[in-house]
Amino acid sequence: MADTTTSAPRARRIGPVNLRLWLPLLWIALVIAAAIFAPLLAPHDPLEQDLMLERLPPWFIAGSEPGYWLGTDSLGRDVLSRMIYGARIALIVSFTAALAACVVGTAMGLIAGFYGGWWDRVISRLVDIWMAFPPVLFAVLLVAVLGTGLGSVILAIAVIDWTRFARVIRAETMVQARMDYVDSARIGGARRMTALISEILPNILPSVIALLTLEMGIAVIVEAILSFVNLSISSDDPTWGAMIAEGRGAIHFAWWVLLFPLISLFLTVLSFSTLGEGLKRHFDPVLQ
Amino acid sequence: MKPHAHTLDVIKLNIALPNGRRLLRDVSLTLEPGEVRALVGESGAGKSMIGKSVLGILPPNVTITEGEILLEGQHLNMMTPATRRKTVAQSAALIPQDPLTALNPVRKIGPQIVDPLVRIQGWSRSDAEARALDLLDRVHIRDPKRVMGSYPHELSGGMRQRVLIAAAFAPSPRLIVADEPTTALDVTVQKQILRLIRELQQETGTAVLFVTHDMGVVAKISQKVTVLFAGKVMEDAPTPEVFTNPRHPYTRALIAATPSYADLDRPFSPVPAALIKDLHARIAQDDMLYTGGRR
To answer: B179 lies in a domain?
Structure first.
């Protein structure tokens, strides 16, 4: 290694990296737009039933009605409108629940990884115990105790999934805490806690962001599962999970009721997890 | 701050692990202003632990069980943690062993040198930046402005070590602990870095506690030597004397074990196992007396 020359910045892999970032962002932006402008975008009231128009097929199949682009379900409700309104619930749950899990889990992971000793022992055992429960069963149990409703769903997801953050962040903090730059900061007069927050945390942030986006995808799934078993919010409210549950019975003759919400659920979860990986690369000056 | 003849006094310092294992045994040493003292010994002898005790960065499970550390005449271990932090930050600095991990990878070089000057020394940002540029120039970095705006991973190991030397000297500390600053570098770079530290040290008159395992480095840079074995001081003498007339058999063995580039045919002579065994036995005896006397 020559002493006085700088290594040239590594060539960026423009194609795959950018696609990995932009394709998911595009889909998520679309979902966010649908959620925000639902009343403007939805062609019909998502709750409006019309038994005369039950199980209409989507526009590209004979027998469809104009205006009902993706067909209707067994109660004659517009599938497209329900999907658009369903995006609202999916996003509210995924953002708030993932953020709550992230804040709690990251704090726990930082403390356990940095202070070690009893802090680490207590937090790590807690995580072990927590992870011994099957997550979905745990969620069902929690919602059953807390009662259904948006708040309970969010709380249940946060309570279950903080351990994901705690475990990973703890390990990363332990690695960073051993680095000499932490000592340098402390010699420079920083308290241990200041060193943790201002020196170590920025190094862990790419992982936090990646986990957060991943967790958003997971939250969408958990919410869908809870809706599927009718434990999310009231069964009238349009959620993707409830739509899938409802379409399941009619899959042989009205597959669109199930398929379209399933596709959007799939794309959303996939986007969140791909975006997480893409963002991690994007924010890490070394990986760049 | 009252005037004091010594920059650093370490008096009968003992540190230990929670299980009672002693890492330093009654270590005493002094550093006068402008003096370079080498701290030599094999790995695990506790060399780095002395520097870490002084700077207050011992690992969380290691504690000072006995002894005093005085920085410019001030008792460090009688201070509150906050005062201690401030005192150390104001008058001591570290040149770390591994330049690859000693700079925060997500922060640019500039702020990493400048911020402590502003925060601890209370300089204005423009003064601190001028000082940083000046020092980067003095450690022979060609384009200091660009380096200030770079991330650590954009620099080579040798460059990073120069940056760290600049950062250590920037606040004009009274004491610098250099913890094996050349160990992680290429042999060709080692020499330049060593010369650089000596140059700046002589210009600024900073006292340096130079931790190393390399007797060749000791001869080049220091005026005094402390030889450590298993956390115990074996010999404490002026550098020339250690080489011409080593008093302790362990020191003699260490010098004999140093490979010579001038004479590659000379057979390699490791420290004799019998000597090490004997030393350990004596230390074990000491430890029995030490703990027996206290309990």
So the answer is: yes
